[in-house]
Amino acid sequence: MVIRSEALGCGAYLPERVLTNQELATLVDTSDEWIRARTGIIERRIAAEGELTSDLAVKASEAALAASGVTPDEVDLIVLATATPDYTFPSTATTVQARLGMDHGAAFDVQAVCSGFIYALATADNFIRAGQAGTALVIGAETFSRILDWTDRGTCVLFGDGAGALVIRGAECPGASSDRGVLSTHLHSDGRQRDLLYVDGGPSSTQTVGHLRMEGREVFRHAVTNLAAVVNEALVANGLEPDDIDWLVPHQANQRILDATARKLGMPAERVISTVARHANTSAASVPLALAEAVEDGRIKRGDLLLLEAMGGGFTWGASLLRW
Ligand code: UT7
Hints:
This protein is α/β, with parallel strands linked by helices. Helix content is 31%, strand content 27%. It has helices at residues 21-24, 32-39, 53-68, 92-99, 116-129, 153-156, 216-237, 255-265, 276-279, 286-296; strands at residues 2-13, 17-20, 43-46, 77-81, 106-110, 135-143, 161-173, 181-189, 197-199, 212-214, 247-250, 305-312, 316-323.
């Protein structure tokens, strides 16, 4: 028998304010046609003034706990992925811990930008399998609208705000690929690619928050290559074939990247969860937002095999196989 991290339930939260492509076209030299054709994005959500990453994270966490039938008393680990924390410190995770009324366990943030949720899931899964945590709340939460250069049409049209959360708990399993829970996680990074996607500010360098900078075309090229490789690595590690996957739950950066990854796997579009049209790229929140939507609407069912994957600044990228 082995310990695996079983998924108990998930939840999501999106800010109320919808920003459409048409509205963006009044701010920068762009058009609804260009954004749709190049990215698949139609609209995105923007956090209200004073609405913080932790506010989104708390709402997503409460939804995930309710869906799981778990109380905050039972959680002993919070891992929150974000590149847009409320403050430089303390971590947004400890703010969420306090707001959930918890006075026990450990809470910390992980920083892997758009791959953040895969990194957070891998971290929590390893804590659980090592016996250092029993029940973990894994969160991806972002307010990317706060680090966008709203005069740069090459980036400001691509991102949005939101949060998603997942509750996982250690359980004894036979150790087969038919087990429920996290079957494996696979993480990679390559710091040499830093200049293709970064924020030009920070506490130690400029003492400012900075703005997101990206060489979109180059990031696109790397994303397609790296995602295909890590997805394949996850399948090989578990002796599984693309046909065994019920749902691809990808990071939502660009519909063309989703399509390219699905095509390489030979997966039909009907088995790919896509929220990019309505959420745009919510960085670390995008995978749990997509997961929560597909669980909520009944597409993802107990026992389904999910392939989660993401790629982001760093570069960082990763994948996880999770049987729901
Ligand atoms: O989350 C992980 C990180 N992010 C990503 O994975 C994003 C990866 N990259 C992408 O999704 C795409 O590269 C973009 C959507 C950013 C850009 O699409 P593209 O097909 O690679 O376009 P491009 O950068 O090659 O630009 C094509 C043209 C350029 O004009 P010229 O040089 O051909 O005259 C741009 O200036 O489109 C222009 N352009 C725009 N036009 C209208 C760039 N942004 C816009 C815009 N509206 N918003």
